[in-house]
Structures are given as C-alpha cells and as structure tokens.
Amino acid sequence: MDHSRHIRLSSTELTPDILNGATIYGPGDETVGSVSHVHGIGPTSLIVVDVGGFLGIGAKPVAVPLNQLEFMRDDSGGVHALTTWTKDELKAMPEHTDP
C-alpha cells in the first residue's frame, strides 16, 4: 500500500471515535496490530494496541504513545496508522492493563 498518498489526520481528528479499530502497519507494510482503545485526548494520549491473536482473541494489549504512530486515511476513507515497530517488538512490550 502506498501510504505517501494518504491524508494524515489532523490533531482534531485524533479522537477515540475515529482511532478505535484502526489497523497498525509496521515496517514493510506488515500488519502489526489494531487500536483497541485510547487513553486521554491530545499529544500525551496513549494508544492501546492489540498485537497478535485472531479476531481479538488471544491478542496482547500494549500501550504506546500517540506520537509514535502516524494516523491517516486511505483512498476509501478508512483510518490506519504507521509505526516503526515490528510485531515482535510490540509483543515484547509489557502487557497493558486498564486501571
């Protein structure tokens, strides 16, 4: 997928309603996870990413800072994000548990 043509989301679009469920792509355009939910709103938000599993079953939730993901819309309007982390790097992070 050529992400260079996709429209980056503005800061006002970085809301849970828009980001939840977004697919996360890593290096080489590999699917590395999806957004489970968002903690906070704004530049200090944490994005909880489900890594691994199948259809959400057996996935490991990890929290990453919003500024480590680049959210955008594809040609059909679907929201997704890019990261430099691989699936293995995300799986190696501590598991996130909600307070």
In round numbers, the mean pLDDT is: 91
Which structural class do the helices and strands define?
Answer: mainly beta
Counting DSSP E segments of at least 2 residues, the number of strands comes to: 7
State the separation between the terminal residues, measured CA to CA: 36 Å
Do you know the CATH architecture? Roll
- CATH class, anyone? Mainly Beta
- Strand order of the biggest β-sheet: 1-6-7-2-3-4-5
Provide the β-strand percentage band. 25-35%
Instruction: Give helix % range.
Output: under 10%
How do the helices and strands follow one another from N- to C-terminus? EHEEEEEEH
pLDDT under 50 segments (min length 5)? none
The number of domains: 1
Task: Give a quick precis of the structure.
With 99 residues, this protein is mostly beta strands. It has one domain (3-91): PRC-barrel domain (SH3 type barrels, Roll).
